[in-house]
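Priority: low. Protein: Fungal protein. Input follows.
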Amino acid sequence: MRLLSLLLGSAKKSTASTWLGVKRQVSKPKVKRTVTFGALTTGFGIAGYSLASAAQKYHFYPVVYTDEQIKEINHVESSIQGLNLVQELRRDPAYREIRIPFNRSRHGFTNNLLAGYGRVTVPPLVFYNKETTQVLAVAHIGEDVGLTDGSIHPGLLATFMDEVLALCSFLGLPNNIGVTANLSISNPSKAYVNRYYVLRSQLEWTKGRKAKVHGSAYMLPEKEGSKDSTCVAIADGLFVEPRFAKYLKHVIPFQL
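Result:
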């Protein structure tokens, strides 16, 4: 997908509630940006995959890492697998877990250029619930995508949120495929590199080939359980299924 514009908008007050131990913003806070996308959304990396003994196994195409990088990647993978939230979701029979290796396409953006050591370190864990129409992703963001102060550019968060919200829209669209018509996003707090993130989304309504989704992103504390997670992005997206969507099913590597 290609980010086409970031336009400043109005500010609104926000309140928070708790979902699976992660704070959720229920209305938009300050600094609203409107982002419009026109590319086909194929979702944040998804379909079944098991933990590999070497970091290269995380990639669809071969990638060469140093021993030190492999050690760090496997540490990140182990840490994600051990998160309390991940364990809780796996115990809940209403949720299904899906995942795919990186680099399914040599021309991909989030699944190729932004994938791997120092970026999106390992393929995100993705959980979805068809009954409640919720999708949740857990990811680690490395230091190579940070700004000079170690923060993550809001545009990068917008790209990740677009992926997760689009995947959630698939739960309500007739052919499980859609394009982003509009995405509005606000950033109440800065996000930083070398941290774990939870991105969650909720399908709000569908009407024919249109679907509206709300989502939010949270930066987990450096030490799990030491304090509350920090909300770093809140988004609302409108997704539309193309009229020819039934002919595009072969480009989606999974079915929800």
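The two ends are 21 Å apart (CA to CA). The domain at 7-251 is CATH 3.10.129.10 (Thiol Ester Dehydrase; Chain A).
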